[in-house]
Amino acid sequence: MITTKHTLVALVEDKPGVLNRIASLFRRRNFNIESIAVGHSEQPGLSRMTIVVDGDDAKIEQVRKQLDKVIEVIKIVDITEESSVARELALIKVRATPSTRGEIIQIVDIFRANIVDVAVDSLIVEVTGDEDKVDSLIELLRGFGIKELARTGRIALTRGGVGPLLVEEPKEAKLFRQPSRPSPEEAESPPDW
Amino acid sequence: MKKTGAQILCECLVKEGVEVIFGYPGGAVLPLYDTLPQYPQLRHVLVRHEQCAAHAADGYARATGRTGVCLATSGPGATNLVTGIANAYLDSSPVVAITGQVATPFIGKDAFQEIDITGITLPITKHNYLVLAAKDMARVVREAFHIAGTGRPGPVLIDIPRDVFQQEAEFVYPDRVDLPGYRPKFFGHPAQIKKAAELINAAKRPLIIAGRGVIISKAFAELRELAEKAQIPVVTTLLGIGCFPETHVLSFGWLGMHGMAYANKAVNNADVIVAMGMRFDDRATGMVSAFAPAAQIIHIDIDPAEIGKNVRVDVPIVGDVKNVLQALNEQVIPNEHVEWFNQLEQWREEHPALTIRETDALIPQYVIRQIYEVTRGDAIVVTGVGQNQMWAAQFFFYDKPNSLISSGGLGTMGFELPGAIGAKIGRPEETVWCIAGDGGFQMTIQELATIVQERLDIKIAIINNGYLGMVRQWQQLFYGRRYVHTRLWGPDFVKVADAYGIAALRVTDKKLVTSAIEKAMDYQGPFLIDFVVEPEECVFPIVPPGAALTQFIEMPQEDKVSPPGQQQRGGK
Fold this sequence. Notes:
The structure holds two protein chains of two kinds.
Chain A: E1 4-13, H1 18-28, E2 33-40, E3 46-55, H2 57-69, E4 73-78, E5 84-95, H3 98-110, E6 114-118, E7 122-129, H4 131-142, E8 146-151, E9 155-158, H5 171-175, H6 184-188
Antiparallel strand pairs in A: 1-3, 1-4, 2-3, 5-7, 5-8, 5-9, 6-7
Chain B: E1 2-4, H1 5-15, E2 20-23, H2 30-35, E3 43-46, H3 50-64, E4 68-72, H4 76-90, E5 95-101, H5 117-120, E6 127-130, H6 137-149, E7 155-161, H7 162-166, E8 168-170, H8 190-202, E9 206-210, H9 212-216, H10 220-230, E10 234-236, E11 251-254, H11 261-269, E12 272-276, H12 282-285, E13 296-301, E14 315-318, H13 321-331, H14 338-350, H15 364-375, E15 380-383, H16 387-395, E16 404-405, H17 416-426, E17 432-437, H18 438-443, H19 448-453, E18 458-464, H20 469-478, H21 493-500, E19 503-507, H22 513-522, E20 527-532, H23 564-568
Parallel strand pairs in B: 2-3, 2-4, 4-5, 5-7, 6-7, 9-10, 9-12, 10-11, 12-13, 13-14, 15-16, 15-17, 17-18, 18-20, 19-20
Antiparallel strand pairs in B: 1-8
């Protein structure tokens, strides 16, 4: 079975426990999260989640559908196939001696990363980019000795247009609102068998 | 007007049309109990264990199609509800569970009887709430009932801290719910429905598999129209039993592990399967890779996540079964499938699954059949889980929806008695038979007290074989007859019933079965019959776990006799 990394983006209501619901769903359904990143979206009261999941198409479809069933999830789309910009950020504390510092700075420049802190025996490098770029920089710096590493998950936006998470008012639900409960008369009469 | 949280809750319950609450009081819900007498239209049924409050609400919901309500206090009260909530979740039963919680200042402090019930029930509820202020109460209750009862129904839990019951707030009943993330799709996609109709019209060996979704969406007439118009045989799932009259000429029983051999053969040979309101549970499909190898599958379900979850689907249709079938029936042409039908009839003759072996011994199949005969099928049967459940499903013919109430997905032993309480309260005019095993009955036996206190006229049949029968059967067939810890001592059930003030009889002789059932039916009030049956009787046919549906094991040949079931089958 071919498994690929999929990027799902979800618009969720900013309510307590939402992240827990989603994390719990992944555990319960035996899905594997590669990364998850949560933050405010452009719409007040709504957060945007970017979830990277590894799996075959059928599994990803299940992940998407199950997440969509969480009441607070307003919309969820798989943007893997779409043209998009994806970024990660990493902070890397790397060992640096007077003799290696120059070499590290050169590598950092090539990656257009930044040095955000300098100490006697270490540097903190900040890098943003797609996963491959961050991976390669980490790989190159490993030789100098990485003392600490912090990495965010992927965040992503599709290129151009209004974006797949635009929430339009549903026409169907407005036209045919199913009654949530029987009217009092109905409730009193025996059900229609 | 200002009202307390407890009053707002009660006002909302009345507005939702709630007529009964199954509950058990305790410290955290005392403010609510103190308020209940102000609302005499809310009947409270005191159970003897909170698990049974949830089961009774579930049984009530299944019998009536309305949302059942259960109520428990914080801590152990709430955790005791868990099995019942899970049971409702797996069988898509609309239940609103209300739990008390410690007062808000104590939350997170491991206070007395504090438990994180919203955390615990996260994976077994459709949604749950912790109400932190009385001003949110009306909105939450409105949303909870909306979520529980619409789309694919399911349980919703509302956890309410003690001080929120006492807090005052302005009571405004929300006239609409605003849940942007919850919009079940009720109407199928026209293009998909067209595709399905084309498949059905061209099919040579079509088959309908109807599940509980047909009952939930009340699509009985639509299902019948489809089956009769295009002459498509119908098999149901265990929980779908009753959605199509079992005595109808197009009915071919139910599929799965203990389903009829001819139903399983039909599934295996069909070229087009119209699956509706069902979820391809492993007990129904057998080995998934060998399921319906020749068929193109049309799957109609309101829950998109069920489509393609377990089996591959060729034409998915997300929508309410009733609406989808209405649209589909317009495009399906009248048809005949004589050859296919003859083939099925031939299989039915070759594999008469509903055989009762000829013997003087008291066998459970005979007991169930006699209950069917005496009641003329006009009863609600609530079963336990295990052999008693399968026999009750096999040897009783269900022509009306919701006449069989049984724990399917979770398989909860002990569901029978509280489930029957809920069913009887929901439909008091109906005869309710609780069919229990001696194992499951001992799990919730304390509810006999509830039956007496509430004066419920429930008839109870214990299929008493002195074993945990279904497990014993597996040990016999798959574990070399090593009956490890399945021999079960039970009390004298007649004396137990007597102690509770319930009339009871013990039957050990086959000749006395019918008269005992008649006596129970004639008796005004609850009646218990302890049927001491053959201890090592097995449920046949059985598809061994993990095997394909066609690899069923039938009753040993020498035991077979002509099936009395066939005589019951009427015409169209």
